[in-house]
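Suppose a colleague, Dr. K., hands you the sequence of a protein chain of 333 amino acids and asks what its three-dimensional shape might be. Before reaching for any lab equipment, you can write down a predicted structure in token form. Begin with the sequence itself:
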Amino acid sequence: MNLKQQARLALAAIAVSASQMAGAQTTLLNASYDVAREFYKDINVAFIANYKKTTGKELKIDQAHGGSSAQARAVNDGLEADVVTMNTTTDIDFLASTGVVAKDWNKKFPDNAAPTSSTMLFLVRQGNPKGIKDWDDLVKPGVQVIVVNPKTGGNGRMAYLAAWGSVRKRGGSDAQAAEFVGKLYKNVPVLAKGGRDATTIFLQRNIGDVLVTFESEVVSVDKEFGAGRVDAIHPSTSIVAENPIAVVERTVAKKGTGDVARAYLQFLYSDEGQEVAAKHAIRPRNAALLKKYASTFKPIQLFTVDEYFGSFAEAQKLHFNDGGQFDRLYSVR
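The predicted structure, expressed as tokens, is then:
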């Protein structure tokens, strides 16, 4: 055998070995909401290291992000995500209704399958030139508000419900809440598709005086655009926005990734996973970590969806389905 033949055989052996290694590596896809990109990048690094240490196996995790409702529709239409990590239960309920995830998905993990939560606050331009302090300031003449379209993203639904609930929390009626929310949306120059799109509109296109978004977006903005570009304003009241998770049973049954997918989601409840959440200004369930990061999680009078809307399913039907309250309050510019 000459040197050329030996080289060819060696290269072939390397190719076979690489192919076998690639075949042995499991890949998961996490379909998630728009502003969770950086959080899950760090979660993935931590979990892959943990998985390698405990099993000795290689793992790759891909991410797909967008407006949560758009993501849910994509998964329903065939996107082969192994897990979904959303910001409203209605998007996972939709997947449960079509058999893509388990009908009792919220019983598969602790805390109604929501390992973390967030709330809605305001991001304003440095120095807060419009003097925005609370919800009432968002309906003042000349104040432009950037929010996500509640039809396409959970970020938008939570902003809408937070605004509505702020009136109820102060003792107002649903009629007064509807009047207030209607005034707020008259100050919205353009509806964003998702949370990150809203941030882009606010900071890159320089539209609007205030961005209503998740608490966690403060960390992302500081990292991407530089600290000091925005001031975070915590209103007196806001809503509890739980971040539900589920295994996509249709996909894991096909790929055989069910055990890994469940371990990945369970990792979110671990001390390490909860710490990653807190570092991204996502509220952990761990009480000790909430106390440790007290400077991040400012005290706000929080209310739940159930408190003023019955349930998320009821809120979806009344407010966000076609012909619902949102359609009656908002007219396309």
